[in-house]
Amino acid sequence: MKPAKTRQILTAPRSWRDMPWGESFRDALTQHLQPCLGKLYGFHLLKIGNLSTEIDTQACAISHQVSVGDEEQEVQVIADPMHLPFGAKSVDACLLAHTLSWSQDPHRILREVDRVLIDDGWIVITGFNPLSLLGIGKLIPGLHRRPPWNGRMFSQMRLLDWLSLLNYEVVYRSSFQVVPWNRQGGQMMSRHVPALGCLNIMVARKRTLPLIMTPARRLAGKVKLRATVNATRQLHSLDDQDSG
Question: Could you tell me which residue ranges the Methyltransferase type domain spans (predicted)?
């Protein structure tokens, strides 16, 4: 498996319009995110990355929404996603619309998002599917230097591993838009083979308790149970002696 961190300089597009089929990708993401955003609640939502700012999040019940990016255009806060200027546990939800795709260190971004998220907060991640028609384009000489092929494409299984290490519970994931363009025939293919979709969505929730009981916790539970059983046996012995 390739390491997540890279020394390669990655330049993210400033807008969805700066890549082929970009507006189709944006519209498809906006449509598929509506049900997910409608279930989020809280006080503060961060839209991290220039591409996240163009996603329509009006369906989200969180009223205070802040766009964070490295460009002045249509963002409220100019900042590096790896150094968010917010306090720990101060944000209820974060949207990373293809933010990891052009990151040199996606692990660091996820750790920074984890720092600012409250307990039981939400993280919504979108990206390109490497196992799709779009992903195959990275093998074509010359295309790997142009967006979206100059970005990184992470499989859902890899994202699942990263999120599980941070103790996040994935509550929803989906792939869609098998062909990059949104024309006649494309929707039918997406309906029948969604796993080959060009776009991925993953929604996860930050959990405060371990999802899997550690050996130490199991041992502690057994010790308490054994002590209780022994105490019960001693009590029965005393009762028998009194009766005799």
Answer: 67-125
